[in-house]
């Protein structure tokens, strides 16, 4: 074999190995990125916020929620959750009606009426005992129902996972919570703190599982959130192919990410909330 031919064969082998290596790296990156990566153009910034939230959770929320769980009997914690859920059911009824889903809307109205009248203003979940289930509708889902795409994925300080659409709906959703009825008072602060602690307490087991199984907790939470939100918008009947509106929203988000550089450092947070995974609508 001539020297020149040996060089050509070596170059060919090197090119092949390089191509295989690059393909492997691409596969690994795709696997790590998960199905929600196309909706996450601000990932670097989001990870900073996520890490900030994790630090706040580890330093404050989780320890307080753990003490709360140890000191407060489960029956009381469940009653607190039921009380806040009763307000969520009222807001769910409104959103179901706005979406034209009248049967679930009237079921939610029946739930709220039953629990308010016979369940000590919602502390006791009498409606569930009668077979009336939650429907969990919010204004973000209502916008999605009318074709508003999810937009870019984002992590909000303290509040945690969201999308552009869902973040825009938060102020309206918050008006349907108990603290909103006591604006500017100590009662509002107390109700907000109680809601956060009680919610975090109910998620202690779930976050423990995520910590144990997730190689990349950020990606796991992001994909889980997006999948759950998309499923909720379509009431579980999710189309196989994401609608064009989502692709357009993602493209707009990518353009915005290129046009406006996100600061290199920023707060990050991972509110006690979470879960659901895959492109959201």
What can you tell me about this protein's structure?
By secondary structure, this protein is mainly alpha-helical. The protein has helices spanning 3-33, 43-71, 74-98, 102-118, 126-129, 139-145, 164-174, 186-202, 204-213, 217-233, 244-259; strands at residues 153-156, 160-163. It has a two-stranded antiparallel sheet. Strand 1 and strand 2 (160-163) form a beta hairpin. Helix 3 crosses helix 8 (186-202).
CA-based gyration radius: 23 Å
- Helix/strand order, N-terminal first: HHHHHHEEHHHHH
The proportion of strand residues reads: under 5%
Number of helices: 11
Query: What average pLDDT do the residues reach?
Result: 79
Low-confidence stretches: 1-33, 243-280
User: How many strands appear in the DSSP assignment?
Assistant: 2
* Helical content (DSSP H or I, runs of 4+): 55-70%
Identify the overall geometry: globular
Cα end-to-end separation = 61 Å
Major sheet details: 2 strands, antiparallel
Summing up helix and strand content along with how strands pair, one would put the structural category as mainly alpha
The neighbouring-strand order within the major sheet is 1-2
């Amino acid at each position: 074999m001539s020297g020149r031919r040996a060089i050509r064969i070596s170059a060919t082998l090197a090119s092949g190995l390089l191509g295989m290596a690059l393909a492997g790296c691409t596969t690994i990156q795709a696997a790590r990125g998960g199905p929600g990566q196309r909706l996450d153009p601000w990932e670097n910034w989001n990870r900073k916020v996520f890490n900030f939230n994790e630090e706040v959770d580890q330093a404050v929320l989780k320890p307080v929620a753990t003490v709360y769980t140890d000191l407060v009997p489960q029956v009381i914690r469940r009653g607190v959750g039921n009380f806040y859920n009763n307000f969520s059911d009222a807001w769910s009824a409104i959103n179901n009606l706005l979406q034209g889903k009248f049967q679930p809307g009237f079921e939610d109205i029946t739930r709220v009426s039953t629990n308010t009248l016979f369940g000590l203003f919602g502390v006791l979940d009498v409606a569930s005992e009668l077979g009336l289930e939650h429907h969990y509708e919010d204004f973000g889902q209502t916008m999605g129902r009318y074709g508003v795409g999810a937009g870019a994925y984002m992590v909000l300080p303290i509040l945690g996972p969201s999308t552009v659409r869902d973040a825009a709906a938060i102020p309206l959703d918050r008006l349907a919570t108990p603290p909103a009825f006591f604006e500017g008072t100590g009662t509002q602060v107390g109700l907000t703190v109680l809601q956060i602690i009680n919610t975090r307490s109910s998620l202690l087991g779930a976050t423990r599982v995520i910590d144990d199984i997730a190689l990349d907790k950020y990606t796991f939470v992001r994909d889980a959130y997006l999948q759950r939100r998309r499923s909720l918008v379509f009431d579980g009947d999710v189309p196989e192919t994401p609608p064009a509106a989502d692709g357009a929203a993602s493209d707009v988000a990518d353009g915005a990410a290129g046009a406006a550089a996100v600061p290199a450092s920023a707060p990050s947070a991972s509110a006690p909330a979470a879960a659901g995974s895959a492109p959201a609508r």
